[in-house]
Amino acid sequence: MKPIQGSDGKPSPRMMMNPHLKRMSAFLAIAAAYLIVFKDTKVLRILPDHFTAASRQTVRRKADSQHWSDSTTSVSVANDAYDREPYLNRWQRRFASINNTNATSEGAYFFFKHMRKAGGTSLRSYFRDVFQYHGVSCTRDDYGRMKKRGKAPKILYVEHEFQTMDSECPLHDPRWERSLRVVTLRHPIERHMSEFFFSGPGTKVHIDRQQLYTNKTYTKELSTFLNENIPLWMNEEGGGRSFLDRYGEMEGRVNMYFGRFYTNNFQLRALAGCSSPDCLQRRHAGKLTPQFLREMTRLHPITNENTTMYSSSVPLCTQYFHKDHALYDPCAKGRTKRDECELGCDGPCFYPSVAWGPLDRSDVARAVSALEAFDAVLLMETFDDPDQSAFLADVLGVPRDAAFALTNHNVTNYVVHKTNKHEKTHFYRDLLSKLSPGSLEMLLAENDLEIEFFERAVGVNERKTNEWKRETRWQGT
User: Fold this and answer.
1) How far, in Å, CA of 369 to CA of 359, rounded?
2) Do residues 94 and 108 lie in contact, with contact meaning Cβ atoms separated by under 8 Å?
């Protein structure tokens, strides 16, 4: 079926106003994306998704692991369909058929890909206010009531912080389309050094809350400390001996590397996880055992026979807001029974994926492709700017001038007070260039691919923001 077009080749007003044609167009775009990847697959399975008024049908295939693809082209094509959806009030459209008191079998998810030390705590506080604005309660008290009475919120909150995300999750996981998705990023060097001072060796140093690097009284002392400790911190390879002793060799682990420690190319690894045999073989040639591959494929959405694991929500295995902006995470607790939460937390992209191994530019492309599928891609450096605050408010269907708007959030590091815009965006790079330039060079060299990824993420943020500005005719504050 060919979409109705005007003389300029663009969809006609009739096309724009006809919901059936819009749904069909989105379906064909996504179907075409899957056929690019799975053209040699003999079995295609269509699973209807009646979740929202503007829901899209998703083409999924049932295939053996040798048919999996590591392509990024299909994700890019599918993302075009997502971006044709208006940004304004995506919350209402995505969750249109959800009644928070009348249970449905599927449930919906608010999915936050939380990069450590990139403003996640401030955003979690904001998201809790968004839930309250919409009359949706998803707190620890709700978890307690759900345990007793079996009734749970139907818009579930899931935060993906300590796991890597399969870059092809937007294609394979049916929970993705039942979700509203937000991710925030930060310049890699700023994020790494924030971690160093927040939970690494930097916690041993008293930091002046004013302009740290201009305080001449301890510049030499701090310079010595940085020059000695940053290289040691970078060489601990995933968290130091105690962490490795507890969990074993990290390259043999699935979904476990996001500790409060140094990990090179952190944000790139977080979005370029491997779950397909092709990708795993490229990253870990000669190291994969049949048992490891069986475990990876057993729980993958396209090979798992138990489709209810991905079509029905498990509120017991999701997360809840806690007091003081903390997160109550019952699915991550050791006491949780394995048979209750086999995937860990229940939500998009929580199935097994691997982040370890060598990276190259194909991983950058895969991570950017995954990034495109998010509804909002934020940067810590700018997300409280007026346009970014208004953009996120429109996507989440809340007033731009709400008391809890991001422009009213004081986004600061708990240790260092930023006194101006430049310090907010370049604080640690300026610090290292003055006190430990050798450490800065090491960090830049070892995280070059993550820096390339971040620069491209800035472009994604700008493109989505500009599309929203054209859609809403944004003229500034």
Assistant:
1) 16
2) yes
